[in-house]
Amino acid sequence: MNPKPWPWNKLGKPCPADWGVGLTICIAAVCAHKGEEAIICVSDRKVSMGGYYSADQMITKTDPVGDAWVSMFSGDDMSSVVPILERIRSKSMVHYDEENTVSKMSDIVVEAYQTERKRRVEQGLLSRFSLDTESFNKIGQQVLGHRHAAMCDKISNYDLKCQLLMAGFDNKQHGHVFTVSNPGECENYDKINFWAIGSGEHAALSQLFFFGYNRNAPLSICVYQVLVAKYMAESAEGVGPNTFALVMHNADCVSFIQTEAEAKVRRSWDRITKVPQRALTVIEEEMKRTKADFRESPG
Length: 299
Known about the structure:
alpha+beta, Glutamine Phosphoribosylpyrophosphate, subunit 1, domain 1, 4-stranded antiparallel β-sheet, 8 helices, 39% helix, 19% strand
C-alpha cells in the first residue's frame, strides 16, 4: 500500500502573498494649490515604492520610472513586477521630453504589462507543447486537438495577480494618476485626482471621498488627508502600521515625510478620532430622557 502524502504535499505553490507581501496599500493623489502641482505617494511597505527604500527604511537611491513618474504596486504575486518595471524604465527613458504625455506613458505601461503576461503564458502554459503565442494561433488546434478549447480558456483567464498605480508629471508639469491591471487594462483617475490599490483600497478611498478631497487645497492638507486614508486602511488584511510617504513637487524635486514627523501626524490624528466625552453625555442623557416602555408609541 502506498503511503499517504505528507500534508504539505497537498499545498498549492507558495507565493509572496502567503506571507503578506503584496497585501498592502498604495495611494497617490495630485495637489494643485495656487497652480503649483505636486503628487503625494503613500504606502505601508518598502516593497511598494519601486526602489525608494532599503531594508533600514532609509533613502538609498531614487529609482523612478522615467524622469517624472513613480510606480507603486500590489497583488498576490510580485514576481512579475520587476520585469514589468524594467521594461517601463527602458521605454520611458527613450520617450521622455516632448513625448512625455499621460497617454504615451499609459501606452508604455500597458505594453510592458501585456508583454510580461504573454511571456508568462508562453512559459507556463504553451512551452510544454513547444508552442509560443504565434505558433499557438496558427497550429494550436492541430497540436492540442480536443484540449485546444480548454487551453484558450486558460490563456484568456490567465492573471498576473498584480496591479500598478502610476503617478507622475507630463511634459507640461501636470500631475496624473492611473492604474494598470490584468490583462493590461488602464484606468485614468485625473478627474478625481487620487486613487488607491491593495487590500486596503476600499477603506482608503472611502476616507478620501469622505474628506471630499480637493486638489486645490493647501499641500499640507492634501498630505494629511492621504496619510489619514492610509491609517484607515490599516484595518484591512496585511496592511501594516509602517508608513512611507513622499511628495513629488515636480520632475526634479521630492520631499519625504520621515518617520518621526509621520508619527507626530499619527498621534494628532489618534487624539481626534477618540470619542469625545461631551458627545457620549448627550447620547446618554437623550436615551434616559426618551426612555419608555417598548409597547408604547413614542410621544
